[in-house]
Design goal:
By secondary structure, this protein is α+β, with helices and mostly antiparallel strands. The protein folds into three domains: 88 residues, Phosphorylase Kinase, domain 1 (2-Layer Sandwich), CATH 3.30.200; 171 residues, Orthogonal Bundle (Transferase(Phosphotransferase), domain 1), CATH 1.10.510.10; 47 residues. It contains twelve helices and eight strands. The strands form two sheets. The chain has a six-stranded antiparallel beta sheet, with helices on one face. Helix 4 runs antiparallel to helix 6 and helix 4 packs antiparallel against helix 9. The radius of gyration is 49 Å and the shape is elongated. It starts with 5 loop residues before the first helix and ends with a helix. The N terminus is likely disordered.
Length: 406
């Protein structure tokens, strides 16, 4: 029986248990309607193939088998496959809330944080499909359902899903997918891989945050040129989503952002952080307290590199300097060559002796007979004066003996 309107859909029963209702959406290959499972008493969605679409009935069975392999909360669930007008019909879960394309057509856009949460859900769904070696190949806003009560994003329509390595052209030479959300390697006829779905995810995130795809053009030729050659500049309205979108829209699949790194950036944006958290920097340690310098001769030495203790049989520097200075004074009083020699020798020795004496004063004292250094003892402290007795205001009475004494 053909579908001729909503009044007939309310009376049509397929599979002996699913009564069709209103139309929810229509694509190039089929129509999706609301239905009631009269056996279990629940609402479901039924996807039937259009008569004039020219779709192969085997594609419906293939889609059901692919979706049955991928079990994830963000992937549509197929409950049953029944026959309708000689063709298979898919019975799926009903996601009440419409698609992302419906919201964008109504002029609604998502905030950067809401877009990041949407990206996390779709990324988890794609990762679950890629783990089963399944490529979606048609990630676009029309295939993303948003649940009204919970905001859960559900990826649907695995009709053209394929395994890695499949070509992007069908047997009849018709392009498979939506060019506006298709990776450049697929547009050039190359092999598709998981990175191709990640490119489509980046384009979907741009559309969700800005309202339109970055590759939308007036003609299909201009659109293909923008995807393959033009510079990609995400809108500033995306805010903290710009780094992850730029990574997902990298033309080279080898340099494209991976699923793990994209999940980390999206999680940081969904939590309200533009960048992942960093460990707090440790405070700098304060420099140690330096005690004030002590006066020369009263503490440990301040300069010990130039000090050399006297060897055996060698005079102490201070005594030797004093003896030479005495000879210089005697030579000056006598005059003559001896005086000049004594004067020159005294000057030379005086300079050396003065330096030695200066070092000895800096380093402390040397006890005779010992080659080790011993600091000089600190000067004795003066005792504090006795306290002055307080006056009471009355003078003591003097005895007659003391008064008579002179």
């Amino acid at each position: 029986m053909a579908y001729n309107g909503p009044e007939q859909a309310d009376r049509e029963l397929i599979g002996g248990r699913y009564r069709l209702g209103e139309r929810l959406g229509q694509g190039g290959m089929g129509v999706v309607r609301r239905a009631t499972d009269e056996l279990l008493g629940r609402q479901v969605a039924v996807k039937t193939l259009a008569l004039d679409s020219g779709a192969d009935p085997a594609d419906a069975l293939r889609e059901a088998r692919v979706v049955a392999q991928v079990r994830h909360p963000h992937v549509i669930v197929v409950h049953d496959v029944v026959e309708h007008e000689g063709r298979p019909a898919l019975v799926m879960e009903l996601v009440d809330g419409g698609s992302l394309a419906d919201r964008l057509a109504a002029g609604e856009v998502l905030s950067p944080r809401a877009t990041a949460r949407l990206g996390l859900g779709l990324l988890d769904a794609l990762s679950a499909a890629h783990a089963r070696d399944v490529l979606h190949r048609d990630v676009k806003p029309a295939n993303v359902l948003l649940e009204k009560d919970t905001g859960r994003a559900v990826l649907t329509d695995f009709g053209i899903a394929s395994l890695p390595g499949a070509t992007t052209l069908s047997r009849t030479g018709v392009f498979i997918g939506t060019p506006e959300y298709t990776a450049p390697e697929r547009m050039q006829g190359g092999d598709a891989g998981p990175a191709s779905d990640l490119w489509s995810l980046g384009a979907v995130l741009c559309a969700a945050a800005t309202g339109t795809s970055p590759f939308r053009r007036d003609s299909i030729g201009a659109m293909l040129h923008a995807i393959v050659y033009e510079e990609i500049r995400p809108s500033e309205r995306m805010g903290p989503l710009v780094p992850v979108v730029q990574g997902l829209l990298e033309r080279d699949p080898a340099l494209r952002l991976g699923a793990a790194e994209a999940r980390r950036l999206l999680a940081a944006c969904a939590a309200g952080r533009s960048r992942p958290r960093r460990s707090p920097a440790r405070p700098r340690a304060r420099p140690p307290h330096r005690p004030p310098r002590r006066r020369y001769g009263t503490g440990p030495p301040l300069r010990t590199r130039r000090f050399r203790p006297p060897a055996a049989g060698e005079r102490e520097p201070e005594a030797e300097g004093a003896a030479v200075r005495g000879r210089r004074r005697r030579g000056l009083r006598r005059g003559g060559d001896g005086g000049g020699a004594g004067r020159d020798e005294g000057r030379a020795a005086g300079r050396g002796g003065g330096a030695a004496v200066r070092h000895v004063r800096l380093l402390g004292e040397l006890r005779p007979g010992h080659g080790d250094y011993h600091p000089a003892p600190p000067p004795p402290r003066r005792p504090a004066p006795f306290p002055t007795p307080k006056r009471t205001g009355t003078r003591p009475r003097r005895s007659p003996t003391n008064a008579a004494s002179p």
